[in-house]
Write a structure and sequence with these properties.
Structural class: mainly alpha
Helix content: 55-70%
Order of helices and strands: HHHHHHHHHH
Distance between the termini: 42 Å
Largest sheet: none
Shape: globular
Number of helices: 10
């Protein structure tokens, strides 16, 4: 059986807030030059990570509103049609490559605020419902995680994942 984050609204917002504070503590210590200069082993700058996380915030919020995956990520339908997350992430990175560090951080913060406001308006019953991210043609035996799990993984879980990479930079 798959383990999912099934959280109440209050617990989910607490987890998101804690991880957001930790992420911002790391980001507040970086200069614009550190955000735009060195790259990690995959060639990503810090600002690329910020735009990437912001795009996934939008994905979670807009998918909860019934909008298509590609629209939520801000990329083309062709970029997501293969189902390959690396292809989608490369398209996200390319779309935001010209942003300055300040613009990337502002995008991350704006999308965070929008997602958290949306989640704050949901009740616990809604957060426990299956998140139908792939649409109506999913196989009937597919295990669909609850909304709270998708939101957690698009926020706190995602921040924790990227914090590992951000802490690996050598400035």
């Amino acid at each position: 059986m798959t383990d999912f984050h099934v959280l109440t609204r209050e617990a989910l917002l607490d987890e998101i807030g804690r991880a957001w504070a930790e992420l911002n503590d790391v980001l507040d210590k970086l200069t614009p030059e550190q955000m735009s200069g060195p790259t990690d082993a995959n060639g990503w700058r810090v600002q690329d990570h910020l735009s990437h996380m912001g795009a996934w915030h939008n994905w979670a919020r807009l998918r909860m509103q019934g909008r298509p995956t590609w629209e939520g990520l801000g990329i083309t339908e062709a970029d997501v049609s293969s189902g390959d997350t690396d292809t989608a992430n490369a398209a996200i990175r390319a779309r935001h490559a010209a942003k300055t560090p300040a613009e990337a951080r502002a995008f991350l913060t704006e999308t965070y605020d929008l997602l958290v406001a949306h989640v704050a308006g949901l009740d616990d019953t809604t957060l426990a419902r299956p998140f139908r991210a792939l649409g109506p043609n999913e196989p009937p035996d597919r295990v669909i995680p609850p909304v709270s799990h998708i939101v957690y993984e698009s926020t706190a879980g995602h921040y924790n994942e990227h914090l590992g990479w951000l802490r690996s930079y050598e400035f």
